[in-house]
Amino acid sequence: QVQLVESGGGLVQAGGSLRLSCAASGRTFSSYTMGWFRQAPGKEREFVARISWSGISIYYADSVKGRFTISITISRDNVKNTVYLQMNSLKPEDTAVYYCAASGRKGGTSPGAYDYWGQGTQVTVSS
Fold first, then answer.
1. Nearest in space to 85 (alpha carbons), one of 31, 12, 36, 29
2. In this model, does residue 77 exceed pLDDT 80?
3. Residue predicted with more confidence, 25 or 8
4. Residue 60 to residues 30, 31, 72: CA-CA distances in angstroms?
5. How far apart are CA 107 and CA 23, in angstroms?
6. What are the pLDDT digits (tens) for 25-62?
7. C-beta neighbour count of 122 within 10 angstroms
8. Would you give the DSSP letter of residue 43?
9. How far apart are CA 101 and CA 99, in angstroms?
10. Which whole-number Å values give the CA distances from 49 to 26, 54, 56, 93, in the listed order?
11. Which end of the chain is more exposed for a tag (fewer CB within 10 A), N or C?
């Protein structure tokens, strides 16, 4: 049973920082791509960033490039693995529910390319 559990969301003032975590468990993710998406009220879910399990291939949406950093930590026993999203210089338009996702199909920027999803964590940026 694959589990993706996000944490780290909250309320922050514009210009502040937050670090989101996604604990991934339940299978071997060695060939997977991990992604972060977000969804604001009344809007479609949009791509934020993705990283290959090796950590070598990384890609960001233009809206977050230079402000957000995605990274991954893999445990030696491959049991407790975590994907992070460091968010700096936050803006009110970053307010959304942030979702962690895993893709066994090389990932990409479309939500449809991802097979597993977490429950989401709310990020609210006040002006």
1. 36
2. no
3. 8
4. 21, 20, 15
5. 18
6. 887 777 889 999 999 999 999 999 999 988 999 999 99
7. 12
8. S
9. 6
10. 22, 15, 13, 16
11. N
One-letter-per-residue 3-state SS of 59-123: EECCCCCCCEEEEEECCCCCCCEEEEEEECCCCHHHCEEEEEEEECCCCCCCHHHCCEECCCEEE
Structure tokens at 34: 């991990």
> How far, in Å, are 55, 83, 99 from residue 51 at the CA level?
6, 9, 14
Query: Quick one: DSSP state of residue 41?
Result: T
Tokens found for residue 119? 């429950």
Distance CA 105, CA 60 (A): 18
Structure tokens at 108: 């990409």
Looking up tokens 């780290």 gives 8
